[in-house]
Structures are given as structure tokens and as C-alpha cells.
Amino acid sequence: MKWLRTIVLFDKGGVIHSSDWQAVHESYVRAIRSIDHPRGSGMLTLREKTYLPSGQWARNGVNYLKAYFLEVMQGREGWQPEGNVNLSRDRQQPKVVLYPSLEEYQEPITSDFGGFDFVTTAADGTRVAIEWETGNISSSHRSMNKLAIALGNGVVDVGVMIVPSRNLYQHLTDRIGNIGELSGYLAMWESMKNNVGRGLMAVTVVEHDHLTSDPSFPYLTMGNDGRAKQGRAKL
Fold first, then answer.
1. Model pTM greater than 0.90?
2. CB atoms within 10 A of CB 161
3. CATH code for the domain in which residue 13 is found
4. Which of the residues are catalytic?
5. Least confident of 10-14, 54-58, 208-212
6. What range defines the domain where residue 168 resides?
7. Among candidate residues 233, 234, 227, the one with its CA nearest the CA of residue 63
């Protein structure tokens, strides 16, 4: 699999110059580059999308890519996952006003964010959260917002989201998040640096190595949730 680029949206406190960030970035880029299909081939080859007589597109599933990445990060790269970060419901909410009374008000937090795909700590104590985002586009927005809030609350020091390129997106399950659709929102997430004491937020873009139109080449299998399940039901 190709690593195309890493976009650092903000860096507060010089995290970008730390040995921890360098080590983490080099490690997860190696993990990305190790993802291949078929296994052992050294390249991520995907069957290109195909238009079916049913009027639907046949595309690749995404679970394989995420599972492979997490497997390599833990097994080959040696990072130990540390479970969920604590974004508790009792964290401070901003003071707002109600209309038309203009009373000052704080809305209670009544829902949990859930964990990140991978959380670990680097050698010098930098806490890192990584989201491998091949969910639907709304899931990508939630992941970025969750990373920004975790950084703002000092729960992690580095937040990274890994997303497909526009070219890769076309051959994956319909409506998958991708850098093309997220690009217009980067300025909003960059502006969240004002809430962060020390931290770095980045988006890494990935892509396949090769496409094939060989009808005998298997598509990556789909999962059993969300758009994947809906798409398979249409075939």
C-alpha cells in the first residue's frame, strides 16, 4: 500500500520536532507500506470497481485493510494497544445562552464517544491515538472531531486519522470517507488548535499500489455492518 502524504493540521508545543512523533510516524508508515493483497505479494493490488447488470457497482470491502494495519502495528512494529482513552461525560462544557430568556446555560453531556482504533504511548511518554478511517463519510467527521476533543482535553498528545485517497475511494465500499470529501473541512479542524495546550493533529492519506481488471482476481471481502451490508444486499 502507498503512503501518499501526512498533513499536519496543527502542532502546539513543538511535538512535530520530537523523537516520539518521528518514531510513531515512521512506524505507522512502515505498517501502511506492508499492507499487501494477495498476502506475500509485496503490493496492494485491488480489483477495480465493476458495473453490474443489476445497476450496482461491485467494489472492495474495507475490513481487510484496517485489520491488517492494526495487526502489523502490534505484531511487527511492537506497539502495545492501551485501550480506550477517557473522554468522560463530566468534562467542562462551554457556557452558552438560551433564547429568548438569554439565561446562561451548560448542556450536560449524555453520550459517550467510544474508543479510538489504536491508542499507545511512545518512548518519551507521548500519548498517541490513531483512527484508521474507512467507515462512511459521517464516521470520518466524527473521528476527526473526537481526536480534536481528545487533544483539547489533554487526553492525548498526538491524533492521527488515516484516510483513503480519492483514487482509492472509488474502488471501495460506497460512501467511504476520503481526503477529497474531507478537504473542505480541514480549515475548521486546524482552527481547533486554539483549544490545545500541547498536541499535534494530522491526516495521513493512503492509496493502493496497483489496479487490475482481471475478472478472476478477488475483491477484498466486505464486512457485515453499515454501507457494506446494504451494498451487498443490492447485488
1. no
2. 27
3. 3.40.91.20
4. 133
5. 54-58
6. 2-87+95-234
7. 227
